[in-house]
Amino acid sequence: MFSKRILNILLILNLPSFIISAPLTICDGCDHLSPRSPSPLIPSPSEDDVTCPNLGGTNEPLIDYNVVLKTDATNYDSVVKNHFEMLEKCLQRERHNVHELDFSSIKDNNNVIFDFSVKGMIAGYTTKFSKSFVENYLSKLNDVAIVNENKVIEDPFENEFVKQAPLVRKTVRPVAKMPENYPLDLKYIYPDSAGAGVDVFVVDSGIFLEHEEFQGRQGKTVVEKTFCGNNLADDNGHGTNVASIVGGKTLGVANYANIIGVKITGKDCPLNAQNIINGITYVMQQKANDPERKIVLNKAVEAGIHFVVGAGNRNLDACGFFPGKVETVVTVAATKITLNQQDWATEFTNWGKCVTLFAPGEKVPVAGIVNSSEITLDSGTSLSAPHVSGAIALMLAEGVSTPEQSKEGLLRLATKDKIQGLDYRPTANLLL
Hints:
Peptidase_S8_subtilisin-rel; 17007_t:CDS:1; five-stranded mixed beta sheet; 6 helices; 23% strand
């Protein structure tokens, strides 16, 4: 089952580089989805006398499922070929590549297999099955890694709130040294490159391109792909919020980086696991199209992908949530500034040994969508993570290349032992 918790995924590539910022829902305790005992093999689809598996009773309702296959460099082609040929033969359904698909043209989802595979990187699809077929056959196959019901996420930005902002932070530089204690000098220091040459993919609710934060930037700002019919507009606001933190003209960390929107949710486009997967694998496909690029994604860190995720907003141990519990990712918790000008961990932020560092996450100035000049204050760890993705974009523009180097740089440059409120929540005391 997919949980309601949304984690902010920030996927970063370079040469030239990409950063992806995406809300992601991941289930806890998914291990039960992998087979624990010998499983039946998929029959060879080339044989004329292939017997299709029992797909369940004709009166049993069909449910949307997301399926990820087990593949590696040696068996990718054969696993994908055999599995999809079995599906097409037994289900009599058409197979479509979601990265090239106009979803508005699909009328009958019962007769479609949505293939989100990226050759050599990930193999999987979304389609409808009966529950008995999944439980009794599909989940037990040797080549199936994960099978999850594709549910709509009712509250994707749980525990985040927005208020009108009285001020807009303006970037001023340079200064000789960043002060480590209050009062700060309100000047933002960044390299001359400012993230130039880095493409930031914001996989979210779209971007309000007409906002002043995206006008007159050194880098481009576009919405390149939508999985919500033909709707490219941001009618939710979250994608615009995130984009403005990553690279907005006056609010952004990496002002010169390119910002590229990939829309996966909106007012008439409920967020579900399928669209999250489609958005992330779309950017993976861009990497596959140009192997020189490096990308950030949970199962591809070993291939040189930088992966940043929000810790979550439940005041719980971040190790209980995937992918934040994965050691190779950068997991970001949220801080606030108190009235006596101290940095405190927010009441809502997740914590624990799986947190890499903290970044601002309460009352953060962000671009809004009401009009082209609106600035609001937003809170949540999905606002902390874009600060870190912007910082990594600065590193990539300056020559950092591997995930290990970017994570090491974050830890080396972090301000140490300045965060209060961690007494009962043991966490690395490191502030971006």
